[in-house]
Amino acid sequence: MNREEKRKLQQLIDGYGVTSSTLHSNNIKLTMKRNVVDVAKEFPNYFSRLFPISGGRNLPNVQLLGVSHSGVRLVRRERDAICDYLRVLDTISFEDIAEVSVPRSSTIQILLRNGGWMTLYSHKAEKIRNMVERYCVEAAQGGHEYVRAVADYVTRESTLLSFRENDIIRVVKNRNLHLDKGWLYGVLDNGESGIFPCEYVAPLGKQEAKRGQRRELESWSSLSLNRNLEEDRILKTWLHITARILT
Fold it and tell me: pTM score > 0.85 for this model?
């Protein structure tokens, strides 16, 4: 976070009367925590996955590529006597991206719908392409009822859904769940459910989706959504943000 972002959060947290000694208090309402998290979401880099890159001769000032639910950002690290922060040089929305390719192992090319393009260099080129493509699919399609896992996602976190490559997941949308973009809530055939990142899945075709629906009807009679999932995610993010501001 830069100085202005820290100042904005500091004012908000101070206004709620929160200090380092009351940070973990049960008296802090969920609405307060959600407000702090929502403000942090407005900051361009806070929820981004950052990749070290080089822009070559055409983009000599670019040092990092930030990818998040809100777009792709070209970033440079700035330092002065008081603050060490990340400055956004340019932002590209997923709707403006026509194609992402990796012509060589450490080269990534982004073709824009207006005919423009950029070439970036990173040893994480494949990972960057996969992540950007997932977000582009989400932006274009607006979500799918059924998705297929394109890679294993294994976690011990109780609120997250673990699965294996090629598993079919039913995406559940519910207004009681407050999810960040880039995250979905889904259910496996065996009844296990939880939140998972959309970069690990791809949309299914109509025929595959129908097969998924038949399997679900055979193995499921009802689904109970855990409303505490939202509170758990907000609490973890709240603690991460306030710990940086107050300590």
Answer: no
Give bridge partners of residue 120 from the DSSP assignment. 108
CB within 8 Å of 94: residues ≥ 6 apart: 71, 72, 132, 135, 136, 138, 139, 140
Residue 55 is classified by DSSP as B
Model pLDDT for residues 112-142, shown as the tens digit of each residue: 988 889 999 999 999 999 889 888 876 665 5
Nearest residue to 212 via CA among 224, 221, 204, 200:
204
Q: CA–CA separation, 187 vs 147, rounded Å?
A: 10
Which residues lie closer than 8 Å to 77 by C-beta, 6 or more apart?
A: 63, 64, 84, 85, 86, 87
Q: How far is CA 243 from the centre of its chain?
A: 21
Banded model confidence at residue 73, pLDDT cuts 50, 70, 90 = very high
Residue 225 has pLDDT above 50, yes or no: no
Residue count of the chain, please give it. Answer: 247
Cβ atoms of 238 and 230 closer than 8 Å: no
Question: 22, 28 in Cβ contact below 8 A?
Answer: yes
- pLDDT tens-digit map of 156-201: 888 899 999 988 888 876 545 677 778 888 888 776 888 899 889 9
Place of tokens 């983009």: 59
Give me 61's structure tokens: 């000032």
Q: Apex CA 131: angle with CA 213 and CA 228, to 5°? A: 60
